[in-house]
Amino acid sequence: MARDYYGILGVDKSASESEIKKAYRKLARQYHPDVNSSEEAQEKFAEVGAAYEVLSDPEKRRVVDMGGDPLGGPGEAGGGGFGGAGFGGMGDIFDAFFGGGGGGGSRGPRSRVQPGSDSLVRVTLDLEEAATGTQKEIQIDTAVLCKTCHGKGSADGAKPTTCQICQGAGEVQSVQRTMLGNVMTSRPCSNCQGTGEVIPNPCGSCGGQGRVRERRNVTAKIPAGVTTGNRVRLSGQGEVGPGGGPAGDLYVEIREREHPVFVREGDDLHASVRVPMVEAALGSEIELESILGEDISVRIEAGTQPNDVVNLRGKGMPNVRGGAPGDMVVHLDIAVPTHLNSKQKDALRKLRELEKEGPKLVDKDNAHSGSLFSKLRSAFSGR
């Protein structure tokens, strides 16, 4: 019985050449031995290749359309099984995988000297350090250039020689027999780790790698204005690459400790100041200190209400990119005394007698900004 080559590729009998090729490429990628090493995948890979060979050849496709099998056994059109398929279209999938021709899909040896990887370390700063900028000594565990062989990997300075296992190709090929034919696969050479070269007399310190792991200290200059999540890049301070390759970069990621007074919001700093009730009523002047240690005189206006805010422009955090600094936002917390002596009580009673109005319900639209109604409106409106 003739094989269903169209069904193998999942295309209709009316499929164009480009549709057949597209279906073949998709399935070949899916079942390629370098992607899927299972026995079932290898069989499917061979089956897909045979189907593509048949349907991409006008003469063989004509035989299929007439009900025959150009790759069938005796009694069927053509000769030989899938194992006899030439896989003429295999170059397409090797091009897709490796960018080369179909001659086994060779990728060639990789360089023995490789660039190093980047490293990441986290440091925690006080808010004052983030505001002024600072320098931090950081200890890291990283790959450094081998001092014994200076990255060459050789104990006697000899140059690398061609690997005798892969003959310098960096990979070894093998043929796997399946029920549908032979499949050739390639894998990196384990003797040279895919480089095509070996060190005849490896360095005793690094084992021929050209690098060793070591703990070392690095000084990181942290600019003013950094915040949690910012990263400072130290070029060339990452890991040295295999074979003594150039080092990657070191990234220092910033974390901020919680401050006892200030709460940071971008470049703005929020602080709460407790103001005695009398000072809020009569007005006053208080002295505060900014995050940079600057003394600031703040005027409390007479009649200040709970939750009023004083905005001190430019007294917040510096901008890490050199822009305008943030503000220091002072939230006024009016302190009502809970313990009064007799003189204080007498004074407040006299004040109460002078008041024209006592407590009463107010229209919610006329309640001041710190009132219950104001807070409820803000909560339900999302403001």
Automatic annotation (TrEMBL):
Subunit structure, interactors included: Homodimer.
Binding site for Zn(2+) 1: C146, C149, C203, C206
Keywords, in A-Z order: Chaperone, Cytoplasm, DNA replication, Metal-binding, Repeat, Stress response, Zinc, Zinc-finger
Gene of this entry: dnaJ
InterPro entries the UniProt entry points to: DnaJ, DnaJ_C, DnaJ_domain, HSP40/DnaJ_pept-bd, HSP_DnaJ_Cys-rich_dom, HSP_DnaJ_Cys-rich_dom_sf, J_dom_sf
Name used for this protein in its record: Chaperone protein DnaJ
Domain of life: Bacteria
UniProt organism field: Dietzia timorensis
Ranges of the CXXCXGXG motif repeats in the UniProt entry: 146-153, 163-170, 189-196, 203-210
